């Protein structure tokens, strides 16, 4: 580990693969360029625009939400996944792509079983991502509620930072984490809070025919942007 006093940064690699065994990083789903296997990617038309999805073998390693044009989306994905090359998705990845498209078209598709590989800066970030992956479509938690669920009450700001470093949005649904009182704050993806609002509108914020996240109930002032979630932090 080196001499005492040396600064050490610990990166925790977490592979979320709930229903499958890990096989390998590289396989038929990687692009082969000049004899070298590389991660593959595809630009995927969705209801919110073209998303970029990158993979190694059957594991998702990066997602880029839509930029103003596809060139910018691809550029953003290449920055986050070094060496990525355009490729044909393997069947498992194609299934994930189809499910993402269906979710963004308004169907309540659960992506919690999708295998992703993420390098976390800390164990705290890993635990935050695990909690956020468990939020179903159409529901939200506040930053404070997530902090409590990972055993760090009062850690709402740290949760926000963990969400800001999420390399696989939609699959790790950081858009479902909202501010106190349901305010849709803190979204680092292209379009910022407006993109977050749009995705939440598509998913619907409340079940059972109740008003969606951005539609105030009868009698509420129209300036109300969010519906409080339980705990309201």
Describe this structure in words.
This protein has 233 residues and is α/β, with parallel strands linked by helices. The strands form 4 sheets. Strands 6-5-4-7 form a 4-stranded mixed sheet. The chain has 6 helices and 10 strands; from the N terminus they run ββββββαβαβαβααβα.
Would you report the number of β strands?
A: 10
Average pLDDT, all residues: 76
Q: Give the spatial strand order of the biggest sheet.
A: 6-5-4-7
Gyration radius, rounded:
18 Å
Please bin the fraction of helical residues.
25-40%
Residues in β-strands, percent: 15-25%
Which stretches are low in confidence, meaning pLDDT under 50 for 5 or more residues running? 1-36, 206-233
Sheet bearing the most strands, described? 4 strands, mixed
How many DSSP helices? 6
Question: Per the principal axes of the C-alpha atoms, what is the gross shape?
Answer: globular
Query: Whole-Å distance between the termini?
Result: 40 Å
What is the string of helix and strand elements?
A: EEEEEEHEHEHEHHEH
Structural class: alpha/beta
């Amino acid at each position: 580990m080196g001499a005492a006093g040396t600064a050490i940064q610990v990166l925790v690699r977490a592979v979320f693969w709930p229903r499958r065994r890990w096989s390998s990083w590289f396989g038929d789903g990687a692009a082969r360029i000049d004899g070298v296997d590389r991660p593959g990617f595809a630009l995927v038309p969705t209801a919110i625009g073209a998303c970029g999805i990158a993979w190694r073998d059957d594991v998702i390693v990066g997602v880029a939400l839509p930029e103003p044009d596809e060139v910018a989306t691809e550029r953003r994905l290449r920055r986050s996944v070094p060496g990525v090359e355009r490729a044909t998705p393997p069947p498992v990845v194609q299934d994930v792509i189809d499910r993402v498209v269906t979710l963004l078209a308004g169907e309540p598709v659960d992506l919690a079983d999708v295998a992703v590989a993420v390098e976390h800066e800390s164990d705290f970030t890993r635990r935050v991502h695990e909690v956020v992956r468990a939020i179903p479509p159409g529901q939200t938690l506040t930053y404070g509620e997530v902090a409590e669920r990972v055993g760090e009450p009062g850690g709402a700001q740290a949760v926000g930072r963990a969400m800001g470093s999420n390399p696989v949005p939609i699959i790790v649904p950081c858009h479902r984490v909202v501010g106190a009182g349901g305010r849709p704050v803190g979204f680092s993806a292209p379009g910022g809070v407006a993109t977050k609002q749009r995705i939440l509108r598509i998913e619907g914020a409340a079940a059972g025919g109740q008003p969606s996240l951005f539609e105030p109930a009868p009698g509420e002032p129209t300036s109300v942007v969010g519906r409080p979630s339980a705990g309201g932090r």
